[in-house]
Predict the 3D structure of the following.
Amino acid sequence: MQPEGWPGHIWLEGRTSVHLRDHQPKPSHMPRGPAAKTGEGFLNPAMAPARTRSVMLLADAIEHNWLVPEGKTIRVLDALCATGVRPRRWRKEIPSQERMRITANDLDKDALAWAKQSHQANPIGDDLEWLPEPSRFAKQQEGVVEDGIHWVQGDANKLMIQAPFQWIDLDPFGSPVGFLDAAIQAISRVGVLEVTATDTAALCGSAKTSAARRYGAVGITDSYMHDDATRILLGTIARIAAMHDKSMHPILSLFDGHHVRVTVLLKRSKEEASNWSDNIGYRIRSTPYHFATQAEGEFSGPMWTGPIFDSDIAGRMTVERAIELCAGRDDDFPLDWNNTDVEHSQREIERSVRHLSESAELLSQEHLLVAVDDLGIAAGVGQIPSMKKIKSGLEKAGFKMSRCQMPEAMFATDADWETVLNVARLAE
C-alpha cells in the first residue's frame, strides 16, 4: 500500500532521487539554516552537505580499509533515518556495495513508509541480498531487507542495544545526548560514530541553562562560539565513550550552517580511555585565546582541546572526490531540471567539502584559530587584509595557513600570534 500523498514531487540530492511530500516546497539551491519542519519525517535540505560528507567518509573507509580489513563488511546504521535519504544515498552512491550491511530505522511509521516507497520506486537493481545480524535477544532482528537496505520501525535506543554496528549515524531533531550512551555501547570494538546537534543555542552559549544541563558546559557568544560548540560536543562524546572503556579520535568535526556535525572513531581500549581527560580543558578568552586545564577569567568549556580532524582521511575530502562520487549523471536528473539546476547541484556538492582537504593537516594538530573580523582591531590596521595576502605573508615567514569551513571568515595557522599580527600589518 502506497503512503498517503505518494508520489509527491521529485528532487535530486547527490545522485539519489528524493520524493518530497506535496506540502514541502522544492528546496532552494544552497539552502542555509534550519528548514521549517513541515511534518514528521520531513527532508531538511540544509543537511544535504552533511549527508554528502557521510557518503564520502563511508566510501573512504571501504576503499582504504581503515575501519575493517579488506574484504570484510561494515554494519551501518542510520538510527533516525526519517524519510531515508541518507541510507538511500549510501546505497546509491558508494562503490563496493557488497561490503556494506545498511540498516535504516525510524520510530515514525509514516516517515518510514515514505522512505521504503522511495527506495522501491528508485531501485538499485544489483540483486544484493543479505540477512541482518542476529539480535542479542532473538534469533532475528525486526524489519525486512529490501534492495539492500534493512528497514526497521522502532525506538533507536532499543535497536542499538539489540545488535552491534561498526558505523552509526545519529541525526536527531535537536540534541543528540539522549542517544549517545546507547550508540557508543552499540559500536563494535572499533567503529565510527557520526553525530549531528542542532541545539546550537545551548552549544554556542546563548542558552546557558540548556548548555549546563545537557553538556555540563559554559559557552560564550563571540567569534569562537562555533568552534566552541564543536569542541563541547566532542568533549561530551569523549567523556561518555570513556565510561564504556572506549577512546575517541576525531575524523571530521565542523559547524555547518545551523548545526554541529562530528565524525569520530571509537576504539575499545581501557588504557586509552583512561587518558580521555588529557584532551579536555577550557578556552580562556585572553588575546589570543589559549586552552587551559583549569577555568580562569572569562572562559568556555569544558571542551575537547585536541585535534578535530584526521589529516589523512579529511585530506582526501576533495572537491574532485565529491564530484566523482556524488555529482548527478545525465540519467539521474529529474525531467524538469534545466542547465541552471544541474550547475547549482554541482556547486552544492563542491560546497560540501570546501576548505576541508586544505585545512586537514592544521586541524589535525595544535593550531591557532583566527577570526578575520577580529584581526583588524587586534593588529591596529584600518582595513583587514585579504585571506590571500595573509596566507602569502605567513608562508613567506615559514608558517602554514588555511581557511576553515566556518560560518565566519576564519583561518588556522601554526604561526604564533605576534607573527599573525605582524603579517596583517605588513599586508594592509
Observations:
- The longest strand covers residues 187-197.
- The chain has a mean pLDDT of 93.
